[in-house]
Here is the input.
Amino acid sequence: MSLESLMNQELQALSPSALEADLAHISSALLARGEMLATAESCTGGLIAAACTALAGSSQWFERGFVSYSNAAKSELLGVDPALIAQHGAVSEPVVRAMAEGALAHSAAQASLAVTGIAGPTGGSADKPVGMVWFGWCVAGRTHSEVQRFAGDRAAVRAATVAHAVAQLKTLLL
Here is the structure.
């Protein structure tokens, strides 16, 4: 499967109207607060940042996106302690919280969201199955996190991750 067809599958799996509506709410909320957003993405590889910047005028509220796919990138770009990754694994609550906090520390943003997960089809285990994704958000000085498990192939897991990350950010901002 080509990269272009994989990205098209993921984009088609998203509900464009719901995603656009959530992003419009996020945009309005951040603009009203005079705040900017940064993203820190592992398993989505920049899809959340791409969705944000697809919205016209996003440069007024979207500060930057980090794609930190490897453990080294999580440490180098976001300041995630390698010992934290070694102790808990890249797909864990402590790491996603550190990613969300690191996105703020390494940007001029005041709000962030982070995702790290196992999109599949390989890489899962009994403790961390394919479809498991940890989410982190820093909003209004507080860090929030949760885990979700999504069914489907790689494109479906990634699309569901984008949709959930954005929907929860909207909820936290409003």
In short: Residues 7 and 155 are 8 Å apart (CA to CA). The first strand starts at residue 37 and ends at 41. The domain at 3-173 is CATH 3.90.950.20 (Maf protein).
